[in-house]
Specification:
alpha/beta; single chain; six-stranded mixed β-sheet
């Protein structure tokens, strides 16, 4: 299950209305990962990974393992609503993209570290325009530390994919 946030290109009040609508609408999308299920607790997507990392088997240095599915997911400070609020307040529709009426969906991937910091921020799925990609990356890079994920009672690194939809 993925949460899709629509960014509106009007005044702040319209953006907040768009946010409320986005919070009410969740879209079920099949994921490409052969191991991903549609667990309702996971509002963000899974990424392809090895069978071992899904089940927590560690080969080599435990600190380097990045999980895609864990018992307790990392969370944005204050929860899902605060994540949407952060995105709506910080995303700015690129002026050139708005002028050309460019819309699109960007999927930003990142790893939530054991200390809650975000690393490995990249574009997992590009939009139709690099301006939208750059803006999505900029905002995710500004996010505060998250509450880290847990597997078997210990803090672990977890990979997330956050879809952001730009609509005029």
């Amino acid at each position: 299950m993925t949460a899709v946030l629509s960014i509106q290109r009007t005044d702040i009040q319209s953006r907040r209305i768009g946010l409320i609508v986005a919070l009410l609408v969740f879209t079920l999308q099949p994921m490409k990962s052969k191991n991903a299920d549609t667990d309702a607790l996971n509002l963000l997507s899974y990424t392809e990974c090895s069978e071992d990392s899904l089940h927590g088997t560690v080969h080599g240095d435990e600190d380097k393992v990045v999980y895609d599915k864990v018992e307790l997911l990392p969370s944005f400070p204050g929860g899902q609503q605060n994540l949407f609020r952060f995105l709506s307040m910080n995303l700015k529709y690129p002026a050139e993209a708005a002028k050309k009426r460019i819309q699109g969906r960007v999927v930003v991937g990142f790893t939530v570290e054991k200390d809650g910091s975000l690393t490995g921020i990249d574009i997992s799925q590009h939009s139709t325009n690099s301006l939208l990609d750059k803006e999505a990356m900029r905002v995710v890079s500004k996010m505060p530390k998250w509450s880290p994920g847990r597997q078997d009672g210990r803090l672990v690194r977890v990979r997330y994919h956050l879809p952001i939809v730009f609509r005029l």
